[in-house]
Amino acid sequence: MTQPCDLGALSARKLIGHKQLSPVELMKSCLDRISACNEKVNAIVAIDADRAMERARQDEKAVMDGQDLPLLHGLPVAIKDLESVEGLRTTFGSLLFENHVPDEDESSVETIRSAGGNIFCKTNTPEFGAGANTKNRVYGATGNPFNTDLTSAGSSGGSAAALACGMTPLATGSDYGGSLRTPAAYCGVTGFRPSPGMVPIDSSSLRFSPFSVLGPMGRTVEDAHLLLLAQMDINCQDPFSSEDIYSIPTSLVDTDLSSLRIAYSADLGCSPVDLNIREIFSQRIADICHYFGESFDRAPYMEHVHETFEILRCVSFVAEHQSQLEQSRDLLGPNVIDNTERGQQYSLKDVAWAHTQQAEIYDRFQRYFDDCDILICPTAAVSPFPHKQLTVTEINGEEMPTYMRWLSLAYALTTAVSSVCSIPCGVDHRGMPFGLQIVGPKGADALVLEVAHSLQIACETNPSTSRPVPMMNSV
Fold it and tell me: How far apart are CA 81 and CA 45, in angstroms?
């Protein structure tokens, strides 16, 4: 640790509670790091430093006065620019909302603020979260902290890059087709996709779809877990919200990995994966398999997962963006236009078929865990690519039929309604961060978090699997 901003969130919170770290000192350190690095990385796109420092001074006074301190007391928290924050420019990465400043927090932000989080900035995202390359016509592209010419992925790329650079100890993300997991892998941090309803969503007209979730991001599993505890709530406006939140432990234990049976798969039986990434994954499995009681190579059965995901994704785009496309096409980017126009071509018969297929995929995936506890697979199919390139167009010489196909390692698991944590695990063949997905069925959030936490601790003992950290003087 060189500066307070490099502290993990849980460590910083403990120091604040013991009067060994000032919330003012921590916030100033984060702001200084943003000043030093953000011009090159472009992770933070809106900020209210004055308000943040005033809140930090209030937090410091509460500590010195001996008040009861909430869960996130004194911790800076960055919010992805798809969530509305009162008084802070919130654009959703779209020219349609270029000058939008909300009058109030949405509930997911309000929950974090109520837990003591010092919400001080917004992180970059592609337009309406569409696509796994964080760039838009409002703010431009977010670079990868390990090579700023490369992408930080998306759509939570700003959050992942900010965490890797030490600009904030905690950041929010959202995940549909890997929006939280892929950026975490590309930037060497942790992202957790919880089961639907664990973090309530009450601002979407598509709340009856289990695809889109909100989730936490941190440098480590324990930090992401800390933010999750603040994000969780029971909210009847979210039809998936339930008392399942009480299954999440208030602190993570070091699980006995030797008692677990794990399955692993380089491609989930359905995903195009770069040959070099396959080789790196094989090496990582060799590095970690001895931690577990039993491990075996077995892919889940994901027949029709691509068509199912693409049809149902297009349904959501037509629902949310059809009127915008008709009225303001010139202000929309290619990903939103592509998904919405393709959605218009599907029939009711196609949509009904996709729903029945998702039910079959879900049922098969639940049964997959009858004889294993956890599935492990790569988070991303390719190494980070230049952010000037909108998406991945081919893998191993195979042309990708849609801009989403290269993300199928992530979206196949979304379609199966799984709980997933992406953790950093060394670097790939190009020296860029490499991530593993720790996967369980719907509702296995506590198990996934504890296994990911324990595996991350074990991985830190081996240079080949430890979390990579960018060199701040080169960013």
Answer: 8
Contacts of 437 (CB under 8 A, 6+ apart): 181, 375, 376, 377, 378, 379, 409, 410, 413, 420, 421, 422
Residue 127 neighbours by CB under 8 Å, 6+ apart: 92, 93, 94, 136, 137, 332, 333, 335, 336
Is 70 exceeded by the pLDDT of residue 145?
Answer: yes
Read off the DSSP letter of residue 431: S
Placement of tokens 């506890």 in the chain: 373
- The total number of residues written for the chain in this structure: 475
Across 252-275, b (16+ Cβ under 10 Å) vs e yields: beebebeebebbbbbbbebbbbbe
Q: Which is catalytic among the residues 80, 122, 135, 442? A: 80
87-120: per-residue pLDDT in tens? 999 999 999 999 999 999 999 999 999 999 999 9
Under the banding of pLDDT at 50, 70 and 90, the label for residue 202 is confident
The answer to whether 316 is a known catalytic residue is: no
Q: Which of 40, 128, 136, 38 is nearest to 78 (CA)?
A: 38
pLDDT of 207 reads 84
Q: Which of 22, 84, 108, 179 is catalytic?
A: 179
> Given this model, what pLDDT does residue 174 score?
97
94 labelled catalytic:
no
Rg for the chain (alpha carbons), in Å? 21
Whether this model's pTM surpasses 0.70: yes
Q: Which CATH architecture has domain 4-308+334-474?
A: Alpha-Beta Complex (3.90)
Q: What is the pLDDT of residues 434-474, one digit of tens each?
A: 999 999 999 999 999 999 999 999 999 999 999 999 987 65
28 is annotated as an active-site residue? no
Task: Given the residues 22, 84, 108, 155, select the one marked as catalytic.
Answer: 155
CB 248 within 8 A of CB 449: yes
**DSSP 8-state class, residue 142:** P
